[in-house]
Amino acid sequence: MKKMKAACLTKIPKEIEVREIPVPEIGENEFLVKMHACSLCYTDVKACVHGKHFYIELYGLPWTPGHEMAGEIAAVGDQVTGYSVGQRVAVAPFNPCLECPPCKLGAYRFCHKAPGSFVQPGGFAEYFKVPGEGAHLRTLVLPDSMSYEEAALVEPVASCLHAVRKAGVPQGSTAAVIGAGPMGLILMQLAKAEGAAKVFMVDVDDQRLEQALEFDADEVINSARENANQAIRLKTGFMGADVVFEAVGNAQTYLLALEMARGGGAVSLFGGLPGGSTVEIPSELLHYHELTITGTSSFSPDDYKNALELIEAGKIDVKRLISHRFDSLDGVLEAINLSLDKQGLKKVVLL
Ligand SMILES: [Zn+2]
Ligand SMILES: [Zn+2]
């Protein structure tokens, strides 16, 4: 049996080792991808620290993290159509069945079968296998101009695009993004691409805010030093932002997002809190302010495709988001530690 290297979470918290495991065997309707780029998502970081990930819950440890990946097709089962060995692809980590009631409604995130058909073993491995059924929904052939590292970042851009589209960013509007990490910076770029005339970035870290200005944020607010709600009102003629994105995942910033939105505005709750968390919200914000509040934690096949197109068209600069590149799977643990320390932006393993 052919062997390959894979980063494996063997124990909670954060015991990660690169192990030799069998290269996944593919069935007639599956194909094998040689990983060339996989970027680390904060969801992976949280899963490695707390062990809370549906895949760990389903199959236990060891678990291979990574779901933002791109690579080259290395083998194709006989029944797979539309793909061939040697194609460069970006692969989204979902596999909606398209037949269950949620899928029929387009709510792929809630597919009844999806968790069982996630890519295996995970992105931080030399190879992973992909189901052939419905492959066109999540496996995009890359344009020649797109590098593997850019292709790996199609996934986080798609997540942000889903949030931006669900909340709606009207032409000429004012947006605010709370959290100037990599996702916040993607949300900012997308809000502009969708029509925002001005985007405010809010964070508690001056370095991150300076970086946001380099990424073309119009104005920044340090919410540790000033009352961000008052600040945005002063800067918007006492209106508040038309749309606010919360990209932190914290009860205080959920509340701040609702406060910063103008009456009748929109709030996108993009950052996820730990399961079981509760958030206390004054009822007038929910009722009298007439806000449209949206939550997102996934994306659709269309979002994935459009995210790739936006990157290809140069509307979203993902290259600048990559702060750390590792040339071996040994880099996964360091990448996780850097993320826990809030160092840098996106970390990518390139093989
Ligand atoms: Zn992710
Ligand atoms: Zn389904």
Question: What does the secondary structure layout of this molecule look like, with pairings?
Answer:
Layout: E1 3-11, E2 15-22, E3 30-39, H1 42-50, H2 54-59, E4 68-76, E5 88-91, H3 101-104, E6 127-131, E7 139-141, H4 148-152, H5 154-167, E8 174-178, H6 182-194, E9 198-203, H7 206-214, E10 219-222, H8 228-235, E11 241-246, H9 251-260, E12 261-269, H10 283-286, E13 292-295, H11 301-312, E14 322-326, H12 331-340, E15 346-350
Parallel strand pairs: 8-9, 8-11, 9-10, 11-12, 12-13, 14-15
Antiparallel strand pairs: 1-2, 3-4, 3-6, 3-15, 4-5, 5-7
Helix pairs in contact: 1-12, 5-6, 5-11
The protein binds zinc ion (2 copies).
Residues 41, 43, 67-68, 156 line the site of one zinc ion (ZN).
Question: Could you characterize what this model shows?
Answer:
The mean pLDDT is 94. The chain has 2 domains: 3-153 and 318-350, Medium-chain alcohol dehydrogenases, catalytic domain (Quinone Oxidoreductase, Chain A, domain 1); 159-295, 3-Layer(aba) Sandwich (Rossmann fold). The protein is an alpha/beta fold and 351 residues long. The chain has helices at residues 42-50, 54-59, 101-104, 148-152, 154-167, 182-194, 206-214, 228-235, 251-260, 283-286, 301-312, 331-340, and strands spanning 3-11, 15-22, 30-39, 68-76, 88-91, 127-131, 139-141, 174-178, 198-203, 219-222, 241-246, 261-269, 292-295, 322-326, 346-350. 30% of the residues lie in helices and 26% in strands. Helix 1 (42-50) crosses helix 12, helix 5 (154-167) packs across helix 6 (182-194) and helix 5 (154-167) crosses helix 11 (301-312). The site of one zinc ion (ZN) has 9 residues, from helix 3.
